[in-house]
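Whiteboard transcription, Tuesday session. T.W. wrote the C-alpha cells on the left side:
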C-alpha cells in the first residue's frame, strides 16, 4: 500500500488523507469520554436522585454522540472521495500503460490477468484506501486510549485488560499468519478461472462445433474447485476469529465484574467506574478485531498493489521515435534484409526478407498458413520490432517515426473483423477529427457497404458489442470502410475478404483500384484471385521470399506459385 509509485496517487488526495483520519481520531476521543460521563451519572446523579444533573449529563452524552457522528460523516466523505479518485486515476493509468506496451510486451501478461488487475485488484486497492483513512489510526488509538483510561481508573484492574488483549492478539496472530498468504493464491486461482471463462466465451462456436462442451465444463469445474478449496481454507481459519475473540471478551468482562465487585465492597471502586471499565474492555477487544480485519484488507490490497505495479513498472521494449514527417519522393515501403523471431525464441519467422514497393503500386503478398504474412504486416505497422535489418516507410525507418505519424500513413484491415459498441459513425471515425460526411460516404461506397443506407438510422445505427448485430461479411466491409477513412497513403488488406463472396470481393477491389489511384495498396491473402491483378506479387513460404513478380511471370517461372494457382484456379484462369 505504501510503495513509492502508489504515493503519487495518494498525494492527489492529500487533503482527504489528512482531514479524514483527523476527524476519525476526534471521534475516537469523544467515544472515550462517553464511559466517564456514564460513570458520573451512576455515581453522582442516581444515588443523589439529582434529575437536573442526570439530564445535563444525558444531554452531554447526546452532544458527544452527535459531534462524533458529524466527524464520522466527514471522514466517510473523505474516504469515499479518495477511494474513488485513486481507483479512477489508477485504472486510467493502467489502461494507458497497457496501450503503450508492444504486442511482445503484452505477451508477458495474459488477457485474463490484465482484466483482473484493472478491475478486481484496483477494487482491493480502493478498499485499502478507504480502510487507511477510516480505521487504520482509529483502532490503535482506541486501544491505547482505552488502556490509558482504564489504568487511570484502577491500575490493578488494568491487568485484566492486558491479559485479555494479549490472548485476543495471540488468536489474531495465529489465524492471520496462516490465512494471509492464501490471499495471493486466491488471486492467482481467480486469474486462471477468468482465463478459462474468457476462452469459453470467445471460442463458444469452436467448442460447440467440436462437441467440447463437456470437456470445457469439466475444465471450468476443475478451476472453480481449486479456487473454492483455497477460499474455504481461508474461510475456515477466519471462522475461528469471532467465537474465540468474543469468548475472551465475555470472560474479561466477567473477570471485571467479579474482581470489581470485591473492590466496590471494599470502597476502592465505584459502580460507575466498573461500568466505565466494562465499556473500555469492550472497546479494546472490539478495536483489536477491527484492526485484524484492517490487516486482512491491507494484505489483499498489498497483493493487488504488487500486481498492478508489475504492469505499471513494465518497461516497454519498443520506444517511440521522433520523426513525424516522411520523404514524399521516397519509395512507399523498403524492407531490407529483415529477420524476425519472437522474444525468448530462436526460431526465425522471417529470414532475410528483402523487397521494395514504389509509391502508388498495388502489391500482393501470398503464401500458405504459417508463411509469415501477418508477421510481416505487424512489422510494417511496428507492432513488433525487427530482429535484424530495417523497414522504411517513405524513406523513414519505422523505428524513428512517431506511432501517430506511422499509423496515420499506414492503415490496415486485419483478419479479425473487430467492431466496437457504439454507432456505425463512431466505428468509422475511430477517434479521427476533421472527417466530413462525404468522406464517410465515399469510404462506405468503396467498401460496398450499401446496406448502411438501408438502415433506419443510417450512419447513426447502433453497433452492439463486437458488431454481433451485423453479419460476418457486413462487419468485414465496415472494417474496410474504417481503414479507408482518413486518406492513408498505404492501405493493407490482411486476408480481409475471407467472409466475402467472390463477386463482392472483386467489386471492392475494383472500387479500391479506381478510387485510390496514387495510393499504395497491399493485399495479403491466400487466394490467388485476390492478388493476381496486382502490379507485383511477393511469394512468401516459411518466412522466406520465394519469388517476386507479376502473376504471369511467377506462374511461368516459379514452381511453388504455379502449384498454388493450379490448386485454386482452372488452367484457363491461371494462364489468363
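and on the right, the sequence the group agreed on:
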Amino acid at each position: 500500500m505504501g510503495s513509492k509509485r502508489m504515493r503519487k496517487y495518494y498525494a492527489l488526495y492529500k487533503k482527504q488523507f489528512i482531514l479524514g483520519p483527523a476527524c476519525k481520531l476526534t471521534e475516537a476521543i469523544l467515544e472515550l469520554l462517553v464511559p466517564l460521563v456514564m460513570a458520573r451519572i451512576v455515581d453522582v446523579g442516581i444515588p443523589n436522585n439529582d434529575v437536573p444533573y442526570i439530564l445535563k449529563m444525558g444531554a452531554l452524552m447526546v452532544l458527544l454522540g452527535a459531534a462524533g457522528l458529524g466527524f464520522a460523516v466527514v471522514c466517510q466523505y473523505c474516504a469515499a472521495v479518495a477511494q474513488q479518485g485513486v481507483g479512477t486515476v489508477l485504472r486510467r493509468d493502467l489502461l494507458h500503460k497497457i496501450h503503450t506496451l508492444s504486442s511482445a510486451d503484452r505477451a508477458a501478461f495474459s488477457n485474463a490477468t490484465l482484466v483482473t488487475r484493472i478491475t478486481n485488484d484496483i477494487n482491493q486497492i480502493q478498499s485499502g484506501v478507504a480502510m487507511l483513512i477510516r480505521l487504520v489510526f482509529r483502532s490503535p488509538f482506541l486501544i491505547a486510549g482505552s488502556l490509558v483510561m482504564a489504568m487511570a481508573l484502577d491500575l490493578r484492574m488494568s491487568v485484566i485488560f492486558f491479559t485479555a488483549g494479549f490472548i485476543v492478539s495471540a488468536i489474531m496472530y495465529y489465524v492471520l499468519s496462516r490465512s494471509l498468504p492464501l490471499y495471493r493464491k486466491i488471486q492467482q486461482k481467480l486469474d486462471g478461472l477468468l482465463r478459462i471463462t474468457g476462452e469459453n466465451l470467445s471460442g463458444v462456436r469452436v467448442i460447440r462445433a467440436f462437441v467440447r462442451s463437456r470437456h470445457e465444463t469439466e475444465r471450468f469445474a476443475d478451476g472453480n474447485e481449486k479456487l473454492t478449496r483455497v477460499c474455504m481454507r481461508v474461510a475456515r481459519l477466519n471462522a475461528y476469529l469471532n467465537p474465540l475473540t468474543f469468548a475472551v471478551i465475555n470472560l474479561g468482562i466477567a473477570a471485571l465484574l467479579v474482581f470489581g465487585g470485591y473492590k466496590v465492597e471494599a470502597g476502592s471502586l465505584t459502580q460507575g467506574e466498573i461500568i466505565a471499565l466494562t465499556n473500555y474492555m469492550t472497546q479494546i477487544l472490539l478495536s483489536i478485531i477491527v484492526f485484524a480485519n484492517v490487516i486482512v484488507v491491507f494484505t489483499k490490497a498489498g497483493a493487488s498493489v504488487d500486481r498492478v505495479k508489475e504492469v505499471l513498472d513494465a518497461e516497454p521494449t519498443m520506444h517511440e521515435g521522433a520523426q513525424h514527417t516522411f520523404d514524399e519522393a521516397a519509395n512507399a515501403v523498403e524492407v531490407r534484409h529483415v529477420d524476425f523471431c519472437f522474444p525468448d525464441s530462436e526460431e526465425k519467422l522471417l529470414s532475410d526478407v528483402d523487397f521494395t514497393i514504389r509509391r502508388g503500386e498495388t502489391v500482393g503478398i501470398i503464401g500458405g498458413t504459417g508463411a509469415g504474412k501477418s508477421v510481416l504486416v505487424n512489422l510494417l505497422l511496428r507492432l513488433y520490432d525487427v530482429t535484424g535489418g530495417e523497414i522504411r516507410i517513405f524513406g523513414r525507418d519505422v523505428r524513428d517515426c512517431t506511432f501517430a505519424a506511422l499509423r496515420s500513413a499506414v492503415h490496415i484491415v486485419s483478419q479479425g473483423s473487430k467492431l466496437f459498441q457504439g454507432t456505425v459513425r463512431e466505428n468509422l471515425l475511430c477517434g479521427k477529427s476533421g472527417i466530413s460526411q462525404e468522406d464517410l460516404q465515399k469510404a462506405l461506397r468503396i467498401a460496398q457497404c450499401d446496406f448502411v443506407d438501408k438502415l433506419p438510422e443510417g450512419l447513426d445505427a447502433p453497433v452492439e458489442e463486437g458488431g454481433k448485430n451485423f453479419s460476418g461479411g457486413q462487419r468485414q466491409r465496415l472494417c474496410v470502410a474504417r481503414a479507408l477513412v482518413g486518406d492513408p497513403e498505404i492501405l493493407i488488406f490482411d486476408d480481409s475478404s475471407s467472409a466475402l463472396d467472390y463477386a463482392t470481393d472483386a467489386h471492392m477491389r475494383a472500387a479500391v483500384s479506381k478510387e485510390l489511384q496514387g495510393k499504395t495498396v497491399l493485399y495479403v491473402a491466400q487466394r490467388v484471385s485476390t492478388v493476381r491483378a496486382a502490379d507485383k506479387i511477393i511469394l512468401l513460404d516459411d518466412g522466406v521470399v520465394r519469388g517476386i513478380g507479376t502473376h504471369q511471370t511467377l506462374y511461368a517461372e516459379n514452381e511453388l506459385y504455379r502449384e498454388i494457382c493450379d490448386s485454386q484456379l482452372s488452367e484457363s484462369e491461371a494462364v489468363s
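Someone added at the bottom: The chain has two domains: 4-197+232-312, 333-570.
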